[in-house]
Design goal:
2 domains; 13% strand; single chain; three-stranded parallel β-sheet; 16% helix
Length: 135
């Protein structure tokens, strides 16, 4: 009668060292203590002073998050209160893409802009000005 044996590696799954003794014995880098920054203590208390000399404090800790390019909006907006004191203003030449309604207009402005909010248009037209949207 044949006896069914489980493989040795399935019995070792879940163990920290996975049957290789201590971690240093299965590092795969001979007797040199690992490769690269192994043992530098980034996740533990064995902080080496040479890291500070080489990299400074930037090596340790988390360093922000960058949003994916697809979610970033590259609109440059301006409010009515920040408009210059001129009668005719071409905001597209100055790099602005949208006019928003915060504030009140100081004079009758004639504004050329790519987009504007409904409220901003109402405020400018109520003051006697006009907004041009290129099509």
């Amino acid at each position: 009668m044949t006896v069914k044996h489980r493989k040795k590696n399935t019995r070792q799954r879940g163990k920290t060292t996975y049957g290789f003794g201590s971690m240093k014995k299965h590092r795969g880098a001979g007797n040199r203590g690992g490769r690269g920054m192994a043992g530098s203590g980034k996740r533990a208390d064995q902080i080496k002073t040479w890291i500070y000399k080489e990299f400074g404090h930037e090596y340790f800790g988390k360093h922000g998050f960058t949003r994916p390019q697809s979610t970033q909006k590259h609109e440059l907006i301006i409010n009515i209160e920040n408009l210059p004191d001129q009668d005719t203003i071409n905001l597209t030449e100055k790099g602005y893409t949208k006019l928003l309604s915060k504030g009140s207009p100081k004079r009758k402005h004639h504004i050329i802009v790519v987009a504007c909010s409904k409220k901003a248009r109402e405020k400018i037209e109520k003051a006697g000005g006009k907004i041009e949207l290129p099509q």
